[in-house]
């Protein structure tokens, strides 16, 4: 197992190196530039050139790339052009919000998706199955930003049940020692602050969970259907085992293996979708910071965000592979 982990870590090197080259080329290909974004449309060529010299953008591209790579290895992505603060500090300050949102969305997707997928498989060919499949298809096809605006309009603007934006009531004076607002309310004994944070999380989490939920439903349904047709399940039924025992020992355990892999892969979808969701709900996480960075041509922020997300995504995939091997005794890592 240790050899497997070491080999996967070595495989990360060419993957991240290739990604860094693509990322650097894409950012440099964006129309306009940070100097133009900082100075505005009426900036003189001389002023733009002075800013580019200060930012090192007048140097050859290969020299800029090597400098970016050397800094990235040391987790130094430079200073944000929006705030003037180190990008790493800005990301660390905002990451709790994005993690809180992504975890909440993933919990919704798993808690709702697996039972719905199982129910659809058990009621295969009935109206329940057709309804679940149609709903999952709708969840995949509806864009996140459209669903986010729709939820905001209905439940926040028209009905007034939930807040329209932000992470907490602007009038609240709760301390945030960890940056996870729900947890901070519990730590400080202010349960009202925790509930306020939860109400601000519901709509963004529902919007963000739409695609992972649909994918988990479809994967669970397909996996359970395959397992139900296996000989060992029919043999268990012929022996007269209780339905609950068959479901627990044979169906769920074997059908959850591919679902586990899909759940891990959805983390990347959640982090990428956070850019749109956080922008719609003015949720002060890394995704909104990234979206503002694209508008402002904030090269250090864009590069740092995408590279960190890529590392998280690859590491999560490696963890999923390890869990897969632990769940299935037939899988052996040599």
TrEMBL record:
Gene Ontology BP term (one): transmembrane transport
SUPFAM superfamilies per UniProt: MetI-like
Pfam families: BPD_transp_1, BPD_transp_1_N
Alphabetized InterPro entries for the sequence: BPD_transp_1_N, MetI-like, MetI-like_sf
Coiled-coil intervals: none
Membrane topology, from the record: Multi-pass membrane protein
Any Gene Ontology CC annotation: plasma membrane
Transmembrane spans: 99-119, 131-151, 197-217, 257-284, 304-327
Residue stretches making up the ABC transmembrane type-1 domain: 95-324
Protein's cellular compartments: Cell membrane
Entry keywords, A to Z: Cell membrane, Membrane, Transmembrane, Transmembrane helix, Transport
Location, primary (coarse class): membrane
Family affiliation: Belongs to the binding-protein-dependent transport system permease family.
Protein name listed in UniProt: Peptide ABC transporter permease
The species this protein was found in: Polymorphospora rubra
Species lineage: Bacteria, Bacillati, Actinomycetota, Actinomycetes, Micromonosporales
